[in-house]
Recover the amino acids of this structure.
């Protein structure tokens, strides 16, 4: 059996449309997807990196990463391993490579759907596994939640610098506003302070 050789390859929007987009549509529910024109616009403005995850030159997954500030935080917008390659360690290997690729920047920010608020027990188990996965890699939960387009998320960060939550949040809202638009973000996104 061949040894895994995971590589992350930045691709252009045309390759995304041809090779990745059908998987994107299949993996992410409609209410979690961004319109293709929004992804294309932010890619053309160089705010978005589209990355395919390959093992032995075979596509096993993909990532979409957004960053608007030089050396700032990057938002891992979408991250998926294709179903036939899940639970084989590809996701954690790919994420560790991404963390290393981004080590000159402040860090990487993610949002995961809040555990316990899924539509059923199965979804809550998936959310719990997702949370455990990121924590195992070294992502740290921030002390607030986010409501984004009527969904509650828990924000996590893998930081290369001491964490200043106010600064992280400002940078993340800069990413949101730059890519989606200030008015849409003002109406549809808010920080929820945890009282725990």
């Amino acid at each position: 059996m061949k040894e895994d050789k995971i590589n992350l390859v930045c691709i252009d929007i045309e390759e995304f449309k041809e090779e990745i987009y059908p998987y994107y549509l299949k993996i992410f529910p409609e209410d979690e997807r961004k319109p293709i024109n929004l992804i294309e616009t932010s890619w053309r403005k160089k705010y978005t990196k589209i990355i395919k995850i390959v093992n032995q030159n075979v596509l096993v997954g993909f990532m979409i990463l957004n960053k608007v500030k030089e050396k700032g935080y990057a938002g891992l917008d979408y991250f998926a391993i294709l179903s036939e390659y899940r639970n084989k360690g590809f996701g954690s290997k790919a994420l560790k490579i991404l963390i290393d690729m981004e080590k000159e920047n402040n860090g990487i920010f993610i949002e995961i759907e809040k555990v316990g608020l899924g539509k059923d027990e199965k979804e809550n188990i998936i959310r719990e596994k997702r949370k455990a996965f990121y924590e195992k890699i070294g992502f740290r939960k921030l002390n607030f939640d986010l409501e984004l387009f009527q969904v509650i998320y828990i924000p996590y960060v893998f930081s290369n610098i001491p964490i200043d939550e106010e600064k992280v949040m400002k940078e993340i809202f800069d990413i949101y506003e730059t890519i989606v638009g200030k008015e849409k973000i003002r109406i549809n996104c808010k920080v929820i302070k945890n009282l725990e």
